[in-house]
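SAMPLE LOG
Freezer: B-3
Tube label: C17
Construct: single chain, 341 aa
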Amino acid sequence: MREQNRKGKAMLEGRSLVTGGAGFIGSHLTERLLKEGCKVTVLDNFSNGKTENIQHLLHEPSLVLVEEDLKRPRRLRQIVRSCNTIFHLAANPEVRLGEVDPKIHFEENVLATFNLLEAVRRSGTPKTIVFTSTSTVYGEAEQIPTPEDYGPLLPISTYGASKLACEAMITSYAYTFNHRALILRLANIVGPRSNHGVIADFVKKVKANRKKLEILGDGTQVKSYMHVADCIEAMIHLTKTFQKDTRTVDVFNVGSDDSVAVACIAKIVAEEMDASSIEYEFTGGVDGGRGWRGDVKTMQLSIEKLLQTAWRPRYSSKQAVKLAARALVKQQLDMASTCSS
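STRUCTURE (predicted):
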């Protein structure tokens, strides 16, 4: 495989598949791959992804959009056969759903990944799989910041468990069936087009009630946040680096090198929405101040391994939150303007 040069050669040979390519992170990745000169097939069942996320890309001759459900695939084997590199982002990202219906995480994450891997196995040609995992696979890590070799991995949410199961399956298929796999354990990724997570929740709540903002938990939950622009840059950089390596499987943490508390995020959102005088109402949470059962209260990834590849994020956690809040507020205003016109 080869990187794009000044004459316009694509970063990746052949065609790349992006599962979940109409979702939040997937749409940004698809956009970047096309800018790199890559041929891209986007596969999405549109349960979380939205056509409007990639509407501006549909005119691109190098893009193929396929509506396909990985839980019940129909054309998956043919799609996979034509692709060299597979960016597997398709998943249900709502951690809190595990409290209500754990089956969703099993089907949308584990079953979907198994079906994809079976299509890879049956394709008959070696593939490179880039998988977006999550910091929640570490559970309540005793070592903060948490490095990639931390263990044992004991996730406390069904979402984290499902992602760890996917990591194990991808690793085993890579070693057994002569493929390669790059596993990326992401921090909380934020930015334009995001429709879930604490920032999006706060924006919706402030819009509905500018006098009082409910904050799940005790407000002291502290986690790493990374802007989606940094996330995509890291994914592209690490994929290029992995192409030059000979390892069958490699794992990287992808995040910022600091963290920010939920109470601070609430203040940033309120400021961006000109609601600085709003009253904050903390629910107190469960299990020592968590927002919900399965919510990891303190998370900060060690990104030393990432930094050793000569790459670092541009934005801190607080800067990422501020930029994301600003983008989501603008998104809300644009939607309101469209509806009123």
